[in-house]
Amino acid sequence: MSKTVRIIGAPMDLGADRRGVDMGPSAIRYAELADRLSDSGVDPVDAGDLSIPRAEERDPDASQPSEGTAKFLREVEDVCTRLSDRVAATLEDGEFPLVLGGDHSVAIGSMHGAARAADLGAVWFDAHADLNTPETSPSGNVHGMPLAAALGRGAFGEMPWAHAPRVREESIAYVGLRSIDDRERELLRESEMTAYTMADIDERGMTAVVADALDVATDGTDGVHVSLDLDWVDPRTAPGVGTPVRGGVTYREAHAALETVSERHEADDVVRSMDVVEVNPILDEGNETATIAAELTASAFGKRIL
Ligand SMILES: NC(=[NH2+])NCCC[C@H](N)C(=O)O
Ligand SMILES: [Mn+2]
Ligand SMILES: [Mn+2]
After folding, report:
1. Which superfamily does 4-300 belong to?
2. Which residue stretches belong to region Disordered (predicted)?
3. Is this complex scored with an ipTM above 0.90?
4. Where are the domains of the chain?
């Protein structure tokens, strides 16, 4: 009885400044995601891509953030509302939703969909905290806001398409943080979220940290959302991302992390949904970042060396 994994492409680039991240789903598919998933022992089914408004058809005013706003918020709402429906329908059909971004704003839709019928924890593999609100964001880019959106912080509290009330702070664990805005740092310190930074990984090793992150995300929840932002990996290894930060996790650490996730999943069936985001083929070298994205996803679904 092998699990069906439904691949949902979300070629969103409305949440980030650097163009090209909309090609992420194609690049990850081209890197043989489906074959790699089959080799891992699951059945991939590709549901194609959501349609996203092209840059040329967008309201130019929507890209201009004024203070206390987020760029393209109306368009992001439209895409994430549709994505949430898709993710919820996938789970209702008994399949596993695997969302390919696109920039990280797609996680608003995937978490919202996955948390409709479950209390949802999250493990957030990212260099960034993605905890800005429209009020605190230094950039106005929604890809820096998905966790704040799911938690209903700031203006997101009035946005039912974003706020997922069954996602609670104490069930969220970050792994690999190394770039946090000042306001995010304040929010994080005051919050009940658990943040494992690169320093924790240096000190304790990746597998111990991820095991603890999974404990946090599974405690008192019905399932875990895994969000994999490729800028989590060191930019020398994964250069095709829009907001690279040096000092990231190594190739081996990254695999060890996702293997730890899959081991827990095999034992306890804990992972409910996943997104793989921020692959930007324009900035990549020879599709290396998309290939790593596909490999790490395969590790998350049980691919082993031996
Ligand atoms: N998903 C990402 N790559 N997020 C980067 C966010 C960068 C910065 N913190 C911002 O809010 O603009
Ligand atoms: Mn990031
Ligand atoms: Mn991110």
Report:
1. Ureohydrolase domain (3.40.800.10)
2. 39-68
3. yes
4. 4-300
Sheet strands (E) in the chain? 4-10, 43-49, 96-101, 120-125, 167-177, 194-197, 223-229, 271-277
Cβ neighbourhood burial of 140 (10 Å; 0-12, 13-18, 19+): buried
C-alpha pair distances (Å), 68 with each of 13, 74, 290: 21, 15, 34
Q: Does ligand 1 come within 6 angstroms of the Cβ of 22?
A: no
Residue 102: cis peptide before it, omega within 30 degrees of 0: yes
225 annotated active-site: no
85: annotated active-site residue: no
Q: What is the mean pLDDT of residues 47-72?
A: 81
Is 126 catalytic? The answer is yes
- The structure's pTM equals 0.97
Give the tokens for residue 204.
Answer: 């304790």
DSSP character for 128? B
From the CB of 178, is ligand 1 less than 6 Å away?
no
Q: Which residues are annotated as a binding site?
A: 104, 126, 128, 130, 229, 231
How far is it, in rounded angstroms, from Cα 305 to Cα 279?
25
61-93: per-residue pLDDT in tens? 777 766 578 999 999 999 999 999 999 999 999
Place of tokens 């991240």: 21
Q: How far is the CA of 94 from the centre of ligand 2 (A)?
A: 30
Q: Is the distance from the beta carbon of residue 262 to the nearest atom of ligand 1 less than 6 Å?
A: no
84 near 52, Cβ under 8 Å? no
